[in-house]
Fold each of these.
Amino acid sequence: MNPVALRSEFPLLRRYENGKRLCYVDSAATSQKPQVVLDAVRRYYVEDNANVHRGVYDLAARATQDYEDARAEVAGLVHAEPEEIVFTRGTTESLNLLALSYGGQALGPGTNVVTSPAEHHSNLLPWQQVALRRGAELRFVELDEAGQVTPDAVAAVVDGGTRVVALAHVSNVMGTVTDVGAIAAIAHRAGAILAVDGAQSVPHMPMDVRQLGIDFLAFSGHKMCGPTGIGALYGRRELLAGMSPVYYGGEMIEEVTLTSATFKEAPWRFEGGTPNIAGAVGMGAAARFLQEVGLSEIHRHETELANAAADGLRRIEGVTVYGPEGHRESGVVTFNIDGVHAHDVATALDQHGVCVRAGHHCCQPLMRRLGAASTARASFYLYNDAEDVRQLLAAVQATKEFFRRVAG
Ligand SMILES: Cc1ncc(COP(=O)(O)O)c(C=O)c1O
């Protein structure tokens, strides 16, 4: 993998910000888009645009083919079958759909959902709310010292009443990687299913839902070099087949009378209304692009950069780095400059051309546990290189010195 050559495939990264080389290290928030994805979306609109699954003319058939080809590409990325991929607006919608449909059917008094205090709000609130409505219990796994969810901690809270274990594969704050394969086995032994929030893993590492035993997997197009407003929910075929739709309307029906309706098979019964066809085409192109670059290579490359950044940040006196002490297994590095609000850090880093995320990262319960109202987060991806690490470290050093001087 050649990150310099790769970088040139992303038009936005050729830009310079504040007179500086653009150091974009906020890919956990959203990724930049390569030319092949931009071209695929444009080509769809210029050559094939029509509504899907309805028209009987050639143009409409091509649009439907593009949309279904994209489903197959996305399925291939996670080693699923195309019929096991529901297109959604993103991870948030995927998890809501899952909680409302599967959770709505499986949960009730005497049952429980097991999750962790480290979840993104998108994987907490849907389960919290459906559990409240259905009279089910929401149980939390105890995190270890490093903020990690371990299989042992999951086994300690799962019991015969557990219907769903819902966990992130990679934490968007700590960058920790959860052993979802071992946890799937624990969930299945208890008769529960494992739902994985893959927002921070699918774009960054090889993913095989069959091998890992994952029952549901949610992910977003925009975090994997694809467009915004598109994502996917993978569901094991037998499970999707037993689930009721959540959105009712056009596209998803077989037959409708004034008082009743029958619905298409999965995944189409979950895709009521005109879908984001161009978004799906872009997500399909992104899935192909990532596989061509190689997910193992991407993972190796970005973890190398994240480890170099974490080591460098730890060497700057007055900087606190969160997450694993030892080797990092993801591209996420969260930190604070002591005595400086993370928003001020991010604004100051911007003056050096460095884009990082700052805030609570949609993980308020975890932030309370860390004892930090907010943190700054650098997250690396395939288009970053050693120069990005150098630029980040120099900017953090300069920012720290600036605030020391201002504080006098
Ligand atoms: C771990 C995790 N889960 C869920 C989400 C929500 O993703 P989206 O906003 O694309 O729905 C994010 C986004 O930052 C995330 O990092």
Note: The CA atoms of residues 348 and 399 lie 6 Å apart.
Amino acid sequence: MTSTITSKPAIGASLAVRDAFKIFKENEIQTVALRGANLEVKPGEFVAVVGRSGSGKSTLFSLLAGLTEPTAGRIEIDGRDITNLPELERSRLRRDRIGVTFQSGNLLPYLNALENVELPLEFAGNTQARKRAKDLLEEVGLGARQTSLSAQLSGGEQARVALAMALANNPGLLLADEPTGELDTQTSEEIMQTLERLNAERGVTVLVVTHNPELAARARRRVSITDGVLEEVKP
Ligand SMILES: Nc1ncnc2c1ncn2[C@@H]1O[C@H](COP(=O)(O)OP(=O)(O)OP(=O)(O)O)[C@@H](O)[C@H]1O
Ligand SMILES: [Mg+2]
């Protein structure tokens, strides 16, 4: 994969999770997805987040992205408490500082790779959306498949398009929720290398959920979640 980093360097974001609880209530059923979670991450760190299915990884990411609020506790981004921010300010923070790739994938199947990346850029008012989308696809190693419908891309290629979208705002914090989910070893390796390069060359703070122990082992820092509690994994 070639490295063409064209945009201005982002400065990595810091984050903190302090005694965070997230309790979902559906009818009479309560699920405690996070139960007093604590975490501090410095700018430019690369952290692998591991844990069994249902342990609270995606819940943690949606709190960090400001997409949901904790039931108790607080979330800080760049030292600023985002827990009780008005929605407008939270969406501004997401726009300016945070990139997310969702576990379920966020591509529109009837658009091609380039259009998928371009659309949110246009919505955000970028007047050079097409050029920027092309640059981003180059950056994630997908320069050659820009006009393929996303439904026709392989899992690994789709993961790269999702990554390009998450990088569109040049984020300081990248939250990658299982970007290598169903992928074969070689492709997972390439995605992981792209994340590592973004971290090393741009200083982007990266949190990545992975079920793959070998990929997790490459991260300088590992954090595990068990039943909604975070714990540092000793090297
Ligand atoms: N919106 C919701 N409403 C109700 N329960 C939820 C909701 N989102 C998550 N949960 C529950 O919270 C718990 C944690 O879910 P979460 O998605 O964070 O797990 P995960 O670690 O990401 O799992 P996986 O590895 O399967 O993606 C699970 O028991 C899940 O069913
Ligand atoms: Mg999940």
Note: The chain has a mean pLDDT of 90.
